[in-house]
Amino acid sequence: MSHAVTNFIRENMGILIGLIVLCSFISIINPDFLSTNNLMNVLRQTSTNMYLAIAMTMVIILGGIDLSVGSIIAVTGVVTTLLIAMLGFPVWAAVVAGLLVGMLFGAFNGYVVATTIIPPFIVTLATMNIARGAAYVFSDGKPVRVMSDSFNNIGSGYIGGFLPAPVLYLIIILIIAYVIMNKTKLGRYMYAVGGNPEAAKFAGINIKKIKIIAYSFSGLMAGVAGIVLSSRMFSGQPTAGDMAELDAIAAVVLGGTSMTGGSGKIGGTVIGALIIGVLSNGLNLMGVSSFWQYIVKGIVILIAVYADVIKKRKQ
Questions:
Q1: What is the mean pLDDT of the chain?
Q2: How far apart are CA 121 and CA 113, in angstroms?
Q3: What is 36-242's CATH topology?
Q4: Which among 200, 214, 245, 299 counts the fewest CB atoms within 10 Å?
């Protein structure tokens, strides 16, 4: 365990220092940042982005991209709340149905990317519009209210009166993702396909299957985020998840995953997502307009991608 921790720190030294400096800077300006309540709030708010970013890491390692996750958040939230509020489904059945919708959108992305020559950017851009349109059609453009305590506790509840429920889901997802990427053939195959598709093909790896699995997982994680967010807002919102893909991609790139595929780590993505979350929280505490936050995040992505390009050239 200590060896793994040492490797983690060494591999992510740069962004770890960046996170510490950012936290220190914000805490000097506003000491409330380091309060337990605020730190738990940061974790709760960051958790939904981490669901997306963890799966996005796998997709980008494959050399792909998924722009549809924000819209999948909206449609899964709307479907889940409609089933509960309008059709009287039990909460567990509606949640399963919502997750299935998210996974089906992801599987569709994966199938089209794997079986055609259409670039992932275009495929997921199209799905982004389809899913967002479906959310508006299903909800008639209006929020779908849910007054069920058992549903609302999914995103707003606490475990042991201290740990936000979404953070517990995050811990479970992180463990699953770590095992997949570091302890299974599937993880090794993802790196192989992203690093050199031709060599992977000659090695007998089923590239189509790997891509479909990765994109399906991305859709599933967007479904988890959609249900958690709709639970926190007590409603399914067709506008939910707007620009969520921006934060997810920013976290992945900040975490050191190469946009050209073949390299990246889940641990780096987690730190990248924490930087995005802390940055947003800090800007809110400082009273900075949300409009400026988009500009800051855009600049952060640009710098991170540029740093990745420079690193690749040196290698």
A1: 90
A2: 9
A3: ABC transporter involved in vitamin B12 uptake, BtuC (1.10.3470)
A4: 299
